[in-house]
Amino acid sequence: MRNFNNLTEEEKEKLINDHLPLVKKVVSRFIHKVPSSIDPKDLINAGIYGLLDAAERFDESLETNFEAYAYHRIRGSVLDYLRACDWLPRSLRAKVHKMEKAYMMVEQKLGRSATEEEVANELGLSIDEFRDLLGSVSNVVMYSFEELGFGRGEERFWSKECEASLPEVAVLDGELVEIIARALDRLPEKEKLVTVLYFYEELNLKEIAEVLNLTESRVSQLRASGLLRLKVYLRKSLGIFED
Fold this sequence. Notes:
Blueprint: H1 9-28, H2 40-57, H3 66-85, H4 90-110, H5 116-123, H6 127-144, H7 160-164, H8 174-185, H9 189-199, H10 205-212, H11 216-238
Helix pairs in contact: 1-2, 1-3, 2-3, 4-5, 4-6, 4-11, 5-6, 6-11, 8-11, 9-11, 10-11
């Protein structure tokens, strides 16, 4: 593929039209996770921006195809747009922060991964109340990863093979990939499996529920719990702390 800056206007338009299904595929994964105030057309426009950014940056010498490269750029652009909208209610952000702190406190005290019951006790909740809370903040937890300030979109979950084939190595270097791998290994088995199926295999919650023979709401809770643990571990490993 020729450098985007060297394409004619007709070629640029063809590039967008040819890859519009890819943009829509990425956007479709967000439609049901954001409030109705977010216009799907705006998400598509953000995705197209990511597509054009991918076209400008793509290096044919890399051992990866353009579609695979563009997918992550599109996804990152959509997530950047959602972050800029700041659509997450402050009350939910506060709940996530309180839960994150609870995971950190319990795991520091015990020196191991905390059980749901132990974190629930730290928060003064019953296990049912705690799981209901996990479900209510599940999507907020996922997007709050952007606030860590590294990578774009969900590039932080790429495998070593994908990372090595792309020019973002200055951001996602081998050390960071190793940190992520260690963080995943620390997760309880079900949370790890849900995280891998969601981010690496790109299954949706319903598909994961079918694979694991769980309810979709339980999968949502496990995803939230796993991501909260990951966020705590990544903050500690990267030296990123909150007040």
